[in-house]
Amino acid sequence: xxxxxxxxxxxxxxxxxxxxxxxxxxxxxxxxxxxxxxxxxxxxxxxxxxxxxxxxxxxxxxxxxxxxxxxxxxxxxxxxxxxxxxxxxxxxxxxxxxxxxxxxxxxxxxxxxxxxxxxxxxxxxxxxxxxxxxxxxxxxxxxxxxxxxxxxxxxxxxxxxxxxxxxxxxxxxxxxxxxxxxxxxxxxxxxxxxxxxxxxxxxxxxxxxxxxxxxxxxxxxxxxxxxxxxxxxxxxxxxxxxxxxxxxxxxxxxxxxxxxxxxxxxxxxxxxxxxxxxxxxxxxxxxxxxxxxxxxxxxxxxxxxxxxxxxxxxxxxxxxxxxx
Length: 324
Known about the structure:
CATH architecture of the largest domain: Orthogonal Bundle
Structural class: alpha+beta
Radius of gyration: 24 Å
Shape: elongated
Distance between the termini: 61 Å
Order of helices and strands: HHHHHHHHHHHEEEEHEEH
Number of helices: 13
CATH superfamily of the largest domain: Hypothetical protein, domain 2
Number of strands: 6
Low-confidence stretches: none
Strand content: 5-15%
Helix content: 40-55%
Strand order of the largest sheet: 4-1-6-5
Oligomer: single chain
């Protein structure tokens, strides 16, 4: 084994964080962890990982559940499409296939997730390249803005034939805890003697600027005799429930369609990966029954909207939302 590989693996075995999915060989459990970690920080992912597996301990149990059950358990983790794809996958296959190419053909599995599964669960020698690995490789070889193919080729060349899953985890752990985006702990890095970018690590891999676009929306909170009007959402919140949400400029038409005269209750802001949602909240009494929002899986945005509406009604002395 190369000295570089020996150095990193020795460091990893002595310094790896005691995470609940470490050393896991069950492909389903690895899949749940990797999907959660795509958009959720490690500390936040741990309780959701445990809760999800407690409720759905196997791929079969997940497939037998309804999407609403799955979203209930996922609630709070955000980026709900991940849960939708997991559920769809569980309904399409009885067992996860044992090769990278076969895994890539499953719904919702990109190159990284398929490689992580193939290497950690099935011992296939394939590099799993996420943002941490890209940064480590770019600094190790002093590459500015390398292409994904170039990074993968270099990463693949470093994967040892023995326990490639452990190697992939070691590189990711190094990127997460030592070779950080800002303030890398270079003196503590086991790869420092091999690193071509050690003199100026901030230069590599170069900034990837992502424009954050702002959307202006309106949310209409209609309260009836027994609760709040809720509808099943689509788009970025598939399968979840919430009050009507639409572009702000469509407010007059929506209000006319409902036949209500709403009051403006303030504004909430909700950040997504490449979007900032600025939502103006409106409240109005409604000649309908409604339902208890606590009995439906809601995205965090809708929780914010309902809290804003509740605070407005309380401040105005109008009352409270039924069961909100």
